């Protein structure tokens, strides 16, 4: 079935056509009809399979079809997401698909000035895409009213219902009308979260696509055993051997992101970092440079593992393994999106073997191992442009240091 055969408003069809979306993806095919019927839906489908449009198309259709246009009435649809970058991205999808409709979509998120967001809110909007924190501030100050919300969507639903967010979500639910449509979308879910999700809705329709393998079939993923201290040489090699490719590198912490960045800088590789310690302006700038391809290497923490849709990321490198097994699925899912193919490699040090076992347990099967022969391993370290200290230069360094300290001691009484 093609989009042109759907009973959706021509205004949306026009936008789909412009985007070159001819046929719905599996999840769109299965989720759009029950959403249009007003049912609650829990939808699980692999990364990069078009889940955003699966909820955006029916929401835009339903709001645009209303005869009585009543935006001033208040927000009709609330989409909650875990990160600011994702809030912006999803808002863009609503804007693009809803370009020829009357539906107004806006986003609020923290880390930027509040005043412009308030002004825009006062104009009246239909769809609000938000991260929980800022939205809550605005709700408690009375700038956002949620009593007209008819549809609640949780994207990355398992994450939104997990420990870090569940309190916020429960707070939000208290402000929403009882009678509403609730939609959950994610690539991963576990039994506990599923039960929690069911407890929040009435008779939901469950749609699960290829539940056996949570990793997108478009991603060729493997693991390589590499010592912690050698990882930077292997990253350098992957980057230099794939020159011109967009490579997303995941590390465990913010500090490590900066360290790996410095190591790449030393060997002449231009990269950017993205993590929670950067201010919002810098985060967005780094993401945009990577999107445009001005910078080909982005070193990020798990803040960008979920949902982010950047076209033509060829490679995902797990420089460190993720702490939470499902984040493996989300990280490698930043490549191989839509119809594209992608590759991923994970660097596993001996101390990370335990985490690897957990991830494989979660996936239900082992990850392909890249065999690196001893020779190749040392060749990779030799390949590095990093200046390695030999004995002679070490001795010279010691000498220089001693001389410098002698000189320092001479002028007495001076600070
Ligand atoms: P998910 O949320 O499932 O990870 P996204 O909604 O971010 O995936 O979409 C992944 C990519 O697929 C996006 O670049 C999007 O533009 C593209 N896409 C979505 N639906 C279609 C479609 N019906 N036909 C072609 N491309 C699509
Ligand atoms: Mg998504």
Question: Which helices and strands occur, and which strands form pairs?
Answer:
Blueprint lengths: L9 H10 L6 H11 L4 E4 L6 H15 L11 E4 L3 H14 L7 E4 L6 H8 L4 E4 L1 H9 L10 E5 L1 H4 L2 H13 L5 E6 L4 H9 L5 E4 L10 E7 L5 H11 L5 E4 L3 H13 L5 E3 L5 H13 L4 E4 L14 E4 L6 H8 L9 E7 L4 H11 L4 E3 L3 H10 L7 H19 L6
Parallel strand pairs: 1-6, 1-7, 2-4, 2-5, 3-4, 5-6, 8-13, 8-14, 9-11, 9-12, 10-11, 12-13
Helix pairs in contact: 2-3, 3-4, 13-14
Bound molecules: adenosine-5'-diphosphate and magnesium ion.
Summarize the structure.
By secondary structure, this protein is of the alpha/beta class. It has helices at 10-19, 26-36, 51-65, 84-97, 115-122, 132-140, 157-160, 163-175, 191-199, 231-241, 254-266, 280-292, 325-332, 353-363, 374-383, 391-409, and strands spanning 41-44, 77-80, 105-108, 127-130, 151-155, 181-186, 205-208, 219-225, 247-250, 272-274, 297-300, 315-318, 342-348, 368-370. The strands form 2 sheets. A 7-stranded parallel beta sheet has the order 3-4-2-5-6-1-7, with helices on both faces. It has a 7-stranded parallel beta sheet with strand order 10-11-9-12-13-8-14, with helices on both faces.
């Amino acid at each position: 079935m093609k989009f042109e055969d759907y009973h959706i408003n021509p205004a949306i069809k026009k936008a789909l056509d412009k985007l070159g979306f001819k046929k719905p993806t599996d999840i769109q095919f299965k989720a759009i009809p029950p959403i249009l019927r007003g049912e609650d839906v829990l939808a699980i489908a692999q990364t990069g399979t078009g889940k955003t449009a699966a909820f955006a198309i029916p929401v835009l259709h339903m709001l645009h079809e209303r005869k009585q246009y009543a935006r001033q009435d208040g927000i009709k649809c609330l989409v909650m997401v875990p990160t600011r970058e994702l809030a912006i991205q999803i808002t863009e999808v609503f804007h693009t698909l809803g370009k020829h409709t009357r539906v107004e979509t806006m986003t609020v998120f923290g880390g930027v000035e509040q005043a412009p967001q308030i002004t825009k809110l006062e104009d009246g909007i239909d769809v609000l895409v938000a991260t929980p924190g800022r939205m809550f501030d605005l709700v408690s100050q009375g700038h956002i009213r949620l009593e007209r919300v008819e549809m609640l969507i949780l994207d990355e639903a398992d994450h939104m219902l997990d420990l870090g967010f569940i309190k916020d979500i429960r707070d939000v639910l208290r402000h929403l009308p009882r009678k509403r449509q609730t939609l959950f979308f994610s690539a991963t879910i576990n039994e506990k979260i599923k039960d929690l999700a069911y407890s929040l809705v009435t008779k939901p329709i469950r749609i699960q696509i290829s539940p056996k393998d949570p990793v997108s079939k478009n991603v060729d993923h493997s693991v390589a055993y590499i010592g912690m201290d050698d990882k930077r040489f292997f990253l350098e090699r992957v980057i230099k051997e794939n020159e011109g490719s967009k490579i997303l590198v995941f590390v465990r912490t913010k500090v490590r992101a900066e360290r790996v960045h410095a190591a790449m800088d030393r060997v002449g590789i231009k990269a950017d970092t993205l993590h929670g310690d950067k201010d919002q302006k810098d985060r967005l700038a780094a993401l945009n440079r990577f999107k445009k391809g001005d910078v080909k290497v982005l070193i990020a923490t798990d803040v960008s593992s979920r949902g982010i849709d950047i076209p033509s990321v060829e490679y995902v490198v797990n420089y460190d393994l993720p702490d939470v097994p499902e984040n493996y699925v989300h990280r490698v899912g930043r490549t191989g999106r839509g119809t594209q193919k992608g590759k991923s490699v994970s660097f596993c040090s001996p101390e990370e073997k335990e985490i690897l076992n957990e991830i494989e347990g979660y996936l239900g099967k082992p990850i392909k191992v890249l065999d690196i022969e001893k020779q190749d391993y040392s060749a990779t370290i030799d390949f590095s442009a990093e200046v390695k200290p030999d004995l002679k230069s070490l001795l010279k360094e010691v000498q220089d240091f001693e001389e410098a300290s002698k000189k320092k001691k001479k002028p007495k009484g001076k600070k």
